[in-house]
Amino acid sequence: MADEQSSYENVVEMRGIVKRFPGVLASDHVDFSLRRGEIHALLGENGAGKSTLMNILAGLYRQDSGSISVNGRPVTFSSPRDAIKAGIGMVHQHFMLVPSQTVTENVLLGLDDPRFLMRLSEYDKKVAELGEQFGLRVDPRAKVWQLSVGEQQRVEILKMLYRGAQVLIMDEPTAVLAPQEIEDLFETLRSMTLQGKSIIFISHKLNEVASIADRITVLRRGQMTAGGVSAVGVSTQELARLMVGRAVVFHLDKSPASPGEVVLDVKDVYAENDKGLPALRGLSLNVRKGEIVGVAGVAGNGQRELSQVIGGLRKCAKGEVRLKGELVSNRSALYGIQRGLAYVPEDRTHVGSAPNLSVTDNVIMKKYRQAPISHSGLLDMNQATRFAKGLKEAYDIIVPTVETPVRLLSGGNLQRVILAREISGEPDFMVAVQPTRGLDVGAIEGVHRLLLTQREAGSGVLLISEELDELLWLSDRIYVIYEGRIMGEIQLGGGDASQETVDVIGQMMTGTPLENIRMERDA
Amino acid sequence: MDFIIIFQAGVATGTVLLFATIGELLTERSGVLNLGVEGMMLIGAMTGFSVTVATGNPWLGLLAAMLFAGLVSQIHALITITLHADQVVSGLALTFLGTGISLVLGEGLSKAGTVALLPSFSVPLLSQIPILGPVFFTRQSILVYIGYFLVPVTWYFINRTRPGLHLRAVGEYPAAADALGINVHGMRYLYVFIGGMLAGLAGATISLAVAPGWFSELTTAGQGWIAVGLVIFAQWDPVRAAVGSYAFGALRRLILDIQGPTVLFGFANPFYYNPYWGFFLQMLPYAFTVIVLVIGSREAIRKRLGSPAALGNTYIRGERGL
Amino acid sequence: MTETTSPKTRRGGFRLQLEPRLSEPSRWFPAAVSLGAIFVALVLGGIVIAFAGGDPFRSYAHIARASFGSLGVISDTIVKATPIILTALACSVAFRMKLWNIGAEGQFIMGAFGASAIVLTPILPAETPRWLFVPVMMLAGMLGGALWGFIPGYLKAKFNVNEIISSLMLNYIAIAWINYWIFGVWSEGGFQMSAKFPDNAWLPRLLDYAESIPAFRGLTTHAGLLIGILAAFVVWLVIYRSRWGYEIRLIGDNPRAANYAGINIARNVIFVMMLSGALAGLGGMSEVTGVVHRLQTSPIAAGYGFTGIIVAWLAKLHPAVVILVSILFGALLLAGREIQPSGVPKMIQGIILVSLIASDFLLRYRVRLIRTEVEG
């Protein structure tokens, strides 16, 4: 477990790091070291303590015990500013950029120079030059909200380089990128190591880690299961075992699809996002009974708006959505609910539930209008409680009582509450957006099982996810969405998807329509 | 009715709103909504007047007013920033508290009579400009002139300086600011304090310049709330805040003066012959505030403008989001 | 993952840490915290009173004696508490939906105006029997308040206008409005008040029954108390046991979830503001027909709407607790009339509210003093 002797070759040296959060030991005597000029991957599932460990190194949190040294000198960081001074910069998973400010303004944020007055043009030039040096091209005068996700990531990296960061912590940098953009990023990272930078690469994706890292440290539930092993000669199976603690079975039993009639028909839908920019541009797709249909795509290509149009939460400018032949678009959320539309929203805590209300109140969210829970405007709380207790049993929701407010539930349990509520209406169709995001492996498996059960029961499921693996395991068909359009549709047979399929999907995710890919291949 | 005189007086009255509005604007830019402006203004008016009565020095009164109101604002800062309480409720509480404290400490002050006031003067040359000269630069209190400076300075500060950049970042995306080592909580305490001081200054402007004296709650008569409304109308921009403030000042003045003459625009003045109609005139500033809010809100919806994105949210490190 | 540390308090290997509570605190804990907050508030208030040259102990002793010292003053306390019950209920339904209606004062005034208009216009002749007079006045009062609540509700729903400011502005407009009627139209002989209402337009009082029950002699407690208690029950039923109340609670806790659940938020904003306004208006009706018996500005626009905000918050928006807390605040207002300096009750209300809000974090966080291991 222990790493080799500390030497100046190690830019960063963390020893015996312990960090406790209420109820969780997020980091349990973890050691970590980073050599100059290497890319060191920090691998682990959600909640394994990767981000916690790195937030400590970046000065956002303070460890309960343990020591950190940089270039052989012990350091204590009480704020991110201290860490940056020591040459450590972190690029967060959720970009820390102020959308209303320009690239240069974002880069200058928190610096002592300029002292008071800002002559931005001078600094615009500096930022552009720095971008040139590291191959991070971006317009310094552009406002951040106008930039693509990939460009925003470049701004984040620039911000750290401008501060003279020698060590870059990249927190799940590929989660928001398309496969080709990921390649670009990897190239940038490699060129940065050649210029003497050292990089910590946080990820839970085995293939990525295997392809970019020089060394790998694996965390599981706050404990280190591998410390700085060389990436050469380690198999992904082995890494997976270290990460999850047991051999992962990636296959769920899945019967062949027996799709029935069409339940959801989306035709040529146009819609705007919250900023009034076009988000869906002539999107069409359909879902039949008894199948799971996946929607793959990089985040922010209209997935959220699509689910909202279906769920009645967003108006569409053109086109229509039909549920079992009946027009549901541009009506209301209630209209769909009354026709048995089930909807698992992307955001569990901010959309899918009311955190301070009880489990009971949360599960009756779509049933409180009907008997037996409602009688002439009044609620029968006995019936509601009975209903909630029934779901608690049937869906293994772990909670002391159904009166407990749901904010006290774990992510997995909260998702069970939401799924239980949606499925209990015995819907013919369900749309689920990112249903497993942020859940641990056990909980993910549970959610997958529930989705498959729905399919078995003959209901149609539209699964919108950014996890391509998840889509490949569960879906019978996959649509790929890019800038609000469907780039193509892929039929999946049973068993594993071929590498070729994955490549084709990857190309579609970056905007190449399926016909073009086929034409190119045929040529 | 002489409109020049009305606007001249309106600018002075509007200066009160200007200070309070700019103060609240700065506080809100940092992401903190402080609804306690009315309470802090009362504190400022009472302190300014009573210290001037005691010392005979209106400058000391002004200073004390700003400091005490700033101090009271820190209660709001403590409750919302450190103790994570809801900003709306805490701001309401601050209004009650400020009103109560100023009533208790201002007991008997209304009988204090007249005191030394802050100086008024005309600006040479500038006062000679037709129309603008007499309105803006003739026999105005020094506080009015300070107000003229405050507007461009605030604009420049917010948009063109490093601390202004940090202020905008803290109000838009505190997590980003925090990650770069900006002390989010410290900045918010500071801007709540500045907002409090300016509210105190606004109050003292009433009691030491515009309408000298202490008349309990009637001293401010809801102007603190109008200031909160004006910030929304101003879309958090100091220049628009100034336009709104002076317009409101002129309106308040117009209402007072319109009942005087027997003839208005060649017609018999209905407000002179029906004195009770004056009550409807009294409603106007409040009704206008509502109308101005409707205009501001509609514009915000149309242009998809928004308040500082983190306005009203407690920042807790490690919690995702704004 | 949520965590907060307070870096400033770190010294000598100890630091204070705030941890969010992961389980519900026990039942008595919130009550204990509230009582503690009130105690702290009274101490702070005492300090300010002393600073202003008063005697805090005498002030507080006076409040206790002057409000609960005898049957007569208890009755007076209840009379003071009655309008507060209704305004606090008004605030609690709106606050439940995170709708910051601070216009209960104006809605109260418009309720008093609506009720008075029935007598003074006159819409019903003076000899109308009480069984007809009182219900019609109640309706008119609720209508006046509901109308005054409708305006900010509509503006919020339609134009997203901040209801705090609009409802507050309407308070000032309401005062000017009744002033116009009192001074300009209904003035009795040029005085700043209307004519007294006829006896059958009064709410019945305990002293009306003194002939059959002598103990009631001089007790001014009126039927407004019954209206208040009934209203509290109705509010409880609506909030906790009705579909509408469920929607209100859901919107209040998470409007986006409510939207997702197919609830029309805009319509609820308007209706809840109207319900809130109607309750406050009922309070105004009860005050004008139970106590003042004429339309007059100073006893009607006396700040009951603002006290209602504090009481609603102190009662944690629970209707039954509202009644209890209202009685305490009634006592404070009653006794406060004679205390010097005269701003004391208002200030104490402010301090209570501030310390109450500040204490709230004890319910959400656990404060721990932890020893840090010595580093490096």
Architecture overview:
- The complex is a heterotrimer of chains A (523), B (322) and C (376).
- Chain A is α/β, with parallel strands linked by helices and 523 residues long.
- Chain A folds into three domains: 235 residues, Rossmann fold; 169 residues, Rossmann fold (3-Layer(aba) Sandwich), CATH 3.40.50; 78 residues, no CATH class.
- Chain A is built from 18 helices and 22 strands.
- In chain A, the strands form five sheets. A six-stranded mixed β-sheet of chain A has the order 6-7-8-3-9-10, with helices on both faces.
- In chain A, strand 9 and strand 10 form a beta hairpin.
- In chain A, helix 14 packs parallel to helix 15.
- The N terminus of chain A is likely disordered.
- In chain B, helix 11 packs antiparallel against helix 13.
- With 322 residues, chain B is mainly alpha-helical.
- Chain B has a single domain, classed as Orthogonal Bundle (ABC transporter involved in vitamin B12 uptake, BtuC), CATH 1.10.3470.
- Chain C is mostly helical.
- The radius of gyration of chain C is 23 Å and the shape is globular.
- Chain C starts with a strand and ends in a 5-residue tail after the last strand.
- In chain C, 53% of the residues are buried.
- Chains in contact: A-B, A-C, B-C.
- The interface between B and C is large, with 59 and 55 residues.
Characteristics:
heterotrimer; A: 523 residues; alpha/beta; Rossmann fold; 6-stranded mixed β-sheet; 34% helix; C: mainly alpha; ABC transporter involved in vitamin B12 uptake, BtuC; 15 helices; globular; disordered N terminus
What's the pLDDT, averaged over the residues of chain B?
89
The CATH architecture classification of chain B is Orthogonal Bundle
CATH level-two architecture of the largest domain in chain A: 3-Layer(aba) Sandwich
Question: What's the count of strands of chain A?
Answer: 22
Order of helices and strands of chain B: HHHHEHEHHHHHHEEHH
Please compute the radius of gyration of chain A using only Cα atoms.
Answer: 25 Å
Low-confidence stretches of chain A: 1-7
Largest sheet of chain A: 6 strands, mixed
Briefly summarize what is shown:
Chain A has helices at residues 50-57, 80-85, 103-108, 120-134, 149-162, 179-194, 206-212, 236-244, 303-311, 333-338, 348-352, 359-363, 381-394, 411-423, 441-456, 468-474, 499-509, 514-522; strands spanning 10-21, 24-35, 39-43, 65-70, 73-75, 88-91, 167-171, 198-203, 215-220, 223-230, 262-272, 278-288, 292-296, 318-323, 326-327, 341-344, 374-375, 378-379, 429-433, 460-464, 477-482, 485-491.
